[in-house]
Amino acid sequence: MKYWQPKYETMKKDELAALQSKRLKKTAASVYNNVPFYREKFKQLGIKPEDIKSAADISKLPTTRKTDLRDNYPFGLFAVPRKDIVRIHASSGTSGKATVVGYTRQDIETWSDLMARNLTMVGLGEEDVFQNAVNYGLFTGGLGFHYGVERIGAVAVPSGTGNTVRQLEMMMDFGVTAIHCTPSYALYLAETAQEMDIVDKLSLKVGCFGAEPWSANTRKQLENALDLKAYDSYGLSELMGPGVAFECECQDGLHLWCDHFLVEVLDEEGEQVAEGEKGELVLTSLTKEALPIIRYRTGDITRLLESECSCGRTTTRISRLLGRADDMLIVRGINVFPSQIENVIARVPEVTEHFQVILDRNQKMLDELTVKVELEENAFTGELKDLAAVKRHVENELKSVLNIRTNVDLVEKGTIPRTEGKSKKVIDRRNAL
Fold this sequence. Notes:
Elements: H1 6-9, H2 13-34, H3 36-45, H4 66-71, E1 87-91, E2 99-103, H5 105-121, E3 129-132, H6 140-151, E4 155-157, H7 164-174, E5 178-181, H8 183-195, E6 206-209, H9 216-226, E7 229-236, E8 241-247, E9 254-256, E10 261-266, E11 278-285, E12 296-305, E13 317-318, E14 323-324, E15 329-331, E16 334-336, H10 338-346, E17 351-361, E18 367-375, H11 384-402, E19 407-411, E20 426-428
Parallel strand pairs: 3-4, 3-5, 5-6, 6-7, 17-20, 18-19
Antiparallel strand pairs: 1-2, 7-8, 8-9, 9-13, 10-11, 11-12, 12-13, 12-14, 15-16, 17-18
Helix pairs in contact: 2-3, 5-6, 7-8, 8-9, 10-11
Domain AMP-dependent ligase C-terminal: 333-430
Protein name: Phenylacetate--CoA ligase
Pathway: Aromatic compound metabolism
């Protein structure tokens, strides 16, 4: 069994608790002294950093939500001077504003080591060739994985997204042994490889998949089609990016790196659930310098798996994600909120406020997002070109906000069902296919 940092990956429970307590106290002091938002939150709760004596005091601290990052856009939650920031990443926000995250040089080093742990844990090393088929740039998945690949001494192939035939050619020509992409894109790669009759020419042994939900059935499909082992990757830009949790070769839950993140799984009342019960994953960063985050409500539903793993790592494990506590959708790896769509629809006078979101998976196994919108009675002039102009306008507006191509289906007023209480705004048919 290979480890990247065995001292931390196999640390005894009492030693880990002592390390977490030490790091939590330091983090609490950092946010109180350097981030006005947190200082005010502490004051509202009547606490000071010295009240945090151990990791067990985590429940005394305030929670943080995605809206708090948006409200403090762009750098209001940074705990270090701008001159100490060496990298900025961002993800789309719920109302057009991005969620901005920053990194110091030490944060980048920490992140690289976390990714190196994950890649080592699934059996990769300096003899491997790793194709990183995700978007580079502000998305954390690209450079996050890239630095980890280079840290373990493997060959990094920064292929980015798109051009599927070229991606497969690179896999053959470069002797690629591991790949990172979304599971839906991996299914399309597999389908294309089968059509080209080149599956037996690939050298893949490991697939790292994340950024969107995927099922045990999808895992089986990918493993059979590409002759590899498929591993689940969990991360979020607010806490670091990819690297927060990852499956080991046992494929029995994701190891969450407790020397860097304090884990809570809370019920709807904010109380810690028992082992095996589902709740919302809440994470506190313990080593981040640029953007320390206290009790971040991820919105992801999971279960705690505390029992020992046969891989020898003693870290807490979580189950694969079971859903969302909010209404966020993940479409081709991009976070989409119905509220974003609602805001766009409200700005277009030719349509009513009634809409429905339909999610399908196309023949290429990629997510398709369709927004069904009602036309106002006086909007249709009888000219098809006018109808096409409205459709194009709504599609363009949605793309500019969501950062993803959206199909718009214009329907007659009164077509979308009205219901008492919460309307059925989202129909997700992806898993039915």
